[in-house]
């Protein structure tokens, strides 16, 4: 299997002001091409550290560098690449024309010297055009290793790779193939699953590997097969995957690697149903999870984020006396919220949540992390109390996951009941 | 200044199924202690790669390792640490008691052998207790370098470091101090700012550095001073920062490093005002940005995410004829949405957005990325059309940032008008 290293350049990544999402995306995409990322190195805007990283990474067939190509003056990457790969700096005419077009026609701002300098590249590279921005990608080769330098802005990096980088890598490197199969469980801990799979794991052939990928209440289990002249790899993987899903049937939520909201959205889509959410403590996060997916309007009516009590009574007609009697974090209130939501949204299914996310607002009786969820249709509802023990952001995330799962259970329950 | 390296261990990080947020947090916190992260290395669950990374990192005073300590069987980190640092594996009694307590009293599940194994550590380490989970942190020293091994689960890693790691690092390493001052601009590109700051930058003393940290329409500018026996470092930094904020007064939105929603929340808080949002294309994302902050209920009434048209007319009383005449993505509709929102939420200020986020739904007249925003109070509103040119997630992010900025402008306008 071919190996790759990723090098990210920039003080902003090292000092932690920016989180690196590029590397994860690149690793996933390279994996699909049968190229395994074996190392990721992050260095600052410092010539010697960049050089060390490039030297270390040279044991790979492919090295991808991101960052350090912006228009501002703390960038030292391009001059370094010139020195490292040799050649002389020249203006790449098609890039210059593209930059001029962007400034004159799209941004309608005056072109500065800084922007023009972005069209300069060492003449030892092949340019990978950047249709989403100004700084182009650069393809170098040295001692049998391919080096691709890319801007750090995620959508520019992705566009260059999709349009030019991956196709050219694919034609330059023919690697072994890697196959993944992922299933998901919900509501069961990593160590409990591991206990149930002890025998299964010890019987796996040596070219198949099992990985646990927990993410809050959802644990993904991934089988990876690496082709090594095994003609039947795909068949063996499929049969092992079938074994795995059978062993964990009772806790499986998906035979695929999809986020929880997509599982629910797909269920609604195939049943031609719409949903809505009434969120208090999750503050719109469930709605955001759903609507970040293209085409969500086909299954999502909308949401009410009723943070204040008066908004709850105004919008969802939750009777004030119920709030006063049971407290705003209670099964009775989420039941009324769900009822009001289904009325006002005309959705088929709804989720209503109310809870205390912390760090403040907890009491002895209802400590931080107490959450009530109601999910269901006009006909069938499930109402459940949860208690999460984490920080605010994790509690919000866990509430969203469990609320979506509760709705999933109602839909399945209705199915089996009919 | 003392140097540190961060090593993350785990195939799940390398193949990109999990995004590494730990490193950014660790780098930020170490920076506050005057320790500069000079290198980050990500390696898979592979003994030789972990060893290479440790050897490379040994030029630092401090090396932090995260990951590879979970209860499942693809973890090889602990046996490796035993081999690398010597000693023998022993059960750490306080950790065992803590694990027994968690299983018996908190999770109320049967304790397995796997869980008990988490209490085993090489006797060459000092244990850093994990009050948020089972796998403890481990502190090793070798040839003048401190190595801290931590679990990869973010909240466990953070808890260990905050309770034990950072205090012990501070007492073990006395580094030079680092000072940062960050300001933020909005609505002006990185390269245009750089042009305005050319003279300022060339006049900076060599112990102060300027970094550009763009994040959508918001660009953070950070001055960093590294103490090097300059008694007046703090004063020089402050005077340079004053110069910087004066040069960019017209585009500055904050003299601090705070997210856009916090700027608006702080403005509302000091004025004792409440806000609400009516979101179509942002799908609850603005509400989520606000409510992820503790104490948001003091300024936030709630939100309506009116994804469908019938929800818009039902909830916000947007007249159907206005939707039919002008289209749902129009200045007229967001104006009506804002009006309805202020009525139903009883908030002082509101934000209403409607747009086409893509990838589908665009037309020749209203292409993907067209967004209308209305922001303001019952008395004063600003209504503005935007056109973003990115992918769905970026368009949502940009809409949220610009909508919050528009509300900021209304509040400032009201102030100066009175």
Describe the structure.
The structure is a homodimer of 418-residue chains. Chain A is of the alpha/beta class. Chain A folds into 3 domains: 2-172, MoaB/Mog-like domain (Molybdenum Cofactor Biosythetic Enzyme, Chain A, 3-Layer(aba) Sandwich); 178-254, Alpha-Beta Plaits (2-Layer Sandwich); 260-412, Maf protein (Alpha-Beta Complex), CATH 3.90.950.20. Chain A is built from 16 helices and 17 strands. Chain A has a 6-stranded mixed beta sheet, sandwiched between helices. In chain A, strands 14-13-15-16-17 form a 5-stranded mixed beta sheet, with helices on both faces. In chain A, a hairpin with a 2-residue loop joins strand 10 (208-215) and strand 11. The two termini of chain A are 50 Å apart. At the A-B interface, helix 1, helix 2, strand 2, helix 8 and strand 10 of A face helix 1, helix 2, strand 2, helix 8 and strand 10 of B.
Summarize model confidence as the mean pLDDT of chain A.
90
State the name of the first-level CATH class of the largest domain in chain A. Answer: Alpha Beta
Oligomeric state of shown chains: homodimer
Largest interface: A-B, 102 and 102 residues
What fold name goes in the CATH topology slot of the largest domain in chain A? Molybdenum Cofactor Biosythetic Enzyme, Chain A
């Amino acid at each position: 299997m071919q190996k790759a290293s990723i090098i990210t350049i920039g003080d902003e990544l090292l000092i932690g002001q920016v989180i690196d999402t590029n590397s994860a995306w690149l690793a996933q995409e390279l994996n699909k091409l049968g190229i395994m990322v074996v190392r990721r190195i992050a260095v600052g805007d410092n010539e010697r550290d960049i050089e060390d990283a490039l030297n270390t990474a040279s044991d790979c067939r492919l090295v991808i560098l991101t960052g350090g190509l912006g228009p501002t003056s703390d960038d030292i990457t391009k001059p370094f690449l010139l020195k490292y790969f040799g050649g002389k700096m020249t203006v790449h005419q098609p890039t210059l024309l593209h930059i001029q077009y962007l400034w004159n026609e799209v941004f309608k701002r005056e072109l500065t010297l800084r922007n023009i300098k972005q069209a300069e590249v060492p003449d030892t590279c092949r340019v990978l055009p950047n249709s989403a921005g100004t700084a182009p990608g650069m393809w170098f080769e040295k001692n049998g290793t391919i080096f691709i330098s890319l801007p750090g802005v995620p959508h520019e990096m992705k566009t260059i790779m999709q349009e030019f980088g991956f196709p050219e890598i694919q034609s330059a490197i023919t690697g072994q193939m890697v196959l993944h199969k992922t299933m998901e469980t919900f509501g069961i801990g990593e160590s409990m699953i591991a206990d149930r799979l002890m025998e299964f794991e010890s019987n796996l052939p040596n070219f198949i590997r099992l990985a646990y990928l927990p993410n809050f209440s959802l644990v993904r289990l991934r089988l990876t097969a690496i082709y090594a002249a095994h003609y039947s790899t795909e068949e063996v993987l499929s049969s092992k995957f079938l074994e795995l899903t059978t062993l964990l049937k009772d806790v499986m939520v998906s035979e695929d690697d999809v986020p929880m909201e997509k599982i629910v959205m797909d269920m609604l889509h195939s049943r031609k149903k719409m949903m809505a959410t009434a969120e208090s403590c999750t503050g719109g996060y469930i709605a955001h999870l759903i609507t970040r997916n293209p085409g969500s309007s086909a299954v999502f009516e909308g949401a009410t984020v009723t943070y204040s009590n008066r908004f709850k009574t105004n919008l969802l007609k939750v009777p004030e006396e119920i709030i006063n009697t049971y407290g705003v974090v209670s099964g009775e209130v989420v039941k009324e919220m769900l009822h009001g939501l289904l009325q006002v949204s005309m959705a088929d299914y709804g989720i209503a949540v109310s809870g205390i996310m912390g760090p403040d607002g907890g009491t002895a009786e209802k400590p931080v992390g107490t959450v009530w969820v109601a999910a269901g249709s006009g006909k069938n509802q499930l109402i459940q109390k949860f208690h999460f023990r984490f920080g605010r952001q994790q509690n919000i995330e866990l509430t969203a996951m469990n609320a979506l799962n509760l709705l999933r259970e109602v839909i399945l329950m209705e199915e089996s009941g009919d």
